[in-house]
Amino acid sequence: MPAPRIAVVTDSTACLPDQLTAHWAVGVVQLQLQLDGRVDDEHRFNRVKLIEAMRDGRPVGTAPPDPGAFFWTYQDAVSRGATAIVSLHISGRMSETVRIAREAAQQIRVPVHVVDSRTTGMSLGFGVISAARAAAAGATAMQVIKAAERRFRASTELIYVDTLEHLRRGGRIGAAQALLGTALSIKPLLTVDTGQVAPLAKVRSEKRALAKMVDLAVKTAGGRRVDIAITRFGADDRELEIGMQLRRRVGGLADSMHVEVSTIIGAHVGPGALGITVSPVN
Q1: Among 3, 25, 199, 271, which has the minimal tally of Cβ within 10 Å of its Cβ?
Q2: Which is it for strands 112-116 and 84-89: parallel, antiparallel or unpaired?
Q3: Region 156-280: CATH code
């Protein structure tokens, strides 16, 4: 009997560069963005124009993928020989994406295992790549899921935002609601905890906040072998300095990358946001 062929699918909030998803044959379903009366897949929007719109105060909305996008992504995997599909997605506390994926999965003739990562961003992305590696090595569907879930649980998101206003408007502020109303001079650091945005620290000034974020990343790595991703929303030289500091201070650094955050995530964290994902290597 031939070995099972497990396809891996995720969504666009995983923030994975196209070359990585192409290399590992990962299917990516796009979440949808709403701007100026237009609703479309997020990758079809111009990032610079979106940032300008947000700075102008124009309303930006987000929505989960169209159910048909999941159906056809799953069907494409089946047509390429998949005998099962592992579908890994943004936290169900942040988006309806998981629910829609499960509805679409019922229409597919091979088993589709939909997993709520309880995170997003590159914490999701690193888990997806671990899953794809396991699948490429001939793992079973359950082994692929376990590889992803180990990474989801171990990864940490550290997020700097200039303001909490965009998270508040989008209804994604979660436990960070407690930081609303603090002085404008206070810059919040956030994380993702139990599937939602949560407060991490309050720091006076952007410079101190970014330094604190680097310190927390180094502490989180703790000498372990880790992958690190530095994410940004828009062009930003600050990420280069952060990257140099992390390469100098994290002794167990396995790999590091700089990525543009998904525009869906950007719509919630706002212009000027920066993030560090620390993900221990299994």
Answers
A1: 3
A2: parallel
A3: 3.30.1180.10
